[in-house]
Fold this protein.
Amino acid sequence: MNFQKRKNIILNILDERGEVTVKELADELAISEITIRRDLTILTADGLVYRTHGGIMKVELTKIPFHFANKAAVNVEEKDNICRLAAKEIQENDIIFMDCGSTVFRLCQFIKNKKIHVITNSLPVVYELMNSSVKINLIGGEIDPERQAVHGRIAEEHIRRYKADRAFIGVDGISVENGLSAFSEIEAGITLAMFANSKISYLLCDASKVGQDKYFRFSPLDALDVMITNKKTPETDKIRKKGIKVIAFDEVEKAVKSGK
């Protein structure tokens, strides 16, 4: 069976059910899960489906604008591994900041049943956490349609009115030499305000961004308390030596398997 035929079958199944797992698709099409995952990568890139951990969902069911859903579905396994570790850091009744990053967004699925208070500038985070156990405070200000987030001076003033236990943010680049960096200046003010008004600041960042410097350098490394990433690398070791706590998924998994 060629890809086009598989594509039509997958989309028909998804249209009927709204959500389906990789295993279910592999069983119904009588092909390997590896082939299905390859097909889903293509369908996600084309904007036809929304990738979830272990399967896919109809795009309209996510209540998330198309382009953000696609961004959130890039490197989905790595992001979910990072966010599982981040969720373990959150205690009942915590107040947390969550920014508008696509990795931070994927934290939502792991905290829906926690009795916590989330303060966020991200519209997708609000959509995802509605009707859950989480209390939501949407930061006020001007909406950026492309980022599906609230930014600006008013938003930063809003953040300064609150004190949080933890802040979870994402960046486009981080290095020992130049700290945190981004492709744009627009999100830097939000990140710095969240850092300044939380007890512990967390960076959720896959290893591909570590050791990278982007267009706008906006914060030194020491503004960060904890970095949670998917794997240990020479660059993450450099950051750890600077006094930043680094939690790497592959190290945690190795420790669990060895019984430590």
Remarks:
- The domain at 76-258 is CATH 3.40.50.1360 (Rossmann fold).
